[in-house]
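Feature request, filed as a ticket because there's no other form

It would be nice if the structure record came with a short human-readable summary line next to the tokens. Right now we just get the raw output. Example of a typical job, pasted below so the devs can see what we mean:
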Amino acid sequence: MAQKATIYKVELSVSDMDRHYYESHKLTVAKHPSETDERLMVRVLAFALNAHEHLEMAKGLSTDDEPDIWQKSLGGELELWVALGLPSEKVVRQSCGKASKVIVYSYGGRTAEVWWEKIKNSTIRFDNLQVINLSEKETGDLGELAGRSMKLQVNIQDGEVMISSDDNIVYVTPIEWKSAV
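Raw output as currently delivered:
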């Protein structure tokens, strides 16, 4: 019998001084049985970094043809495709063909560096692709914040991110490996 997803409730307050975006979001996040707390929290972080009224969690791990997070226009066009981890060159290429902008948040330390070295030359042609790396230490710390019911405050300023939950604070410095044009 297949395991079911675990539901997490997240009250996410985003104060993004870089984009002048200040809103709260109530998220219901389904954690896939094979998903770690670290990956779940990277998903929440990616949501906060791209927060918008039309941004949504997608099926992600449970579906090959959907990202982890996406944003569609009112007309149904894919404006933003957000993927986590280390997608193959084929998946990156297909994603860039489907959406106006694609962001990949890679993490995993040395494994992410090896992945990027392997894939980066084949991604040069994608003007709509942005690749951001998150440090293994920071994403590990982020995973420690995971709980079935969370109230998170995310402050973003000058590219630096502070995530707080109760008395716990995690600082994340996303590193841009490739920028979209």
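Something like this underneath would help us a lot:
The helical segments are 37-49, 89-98, 110-123, 136-143.
The mean pLDDT is 94.
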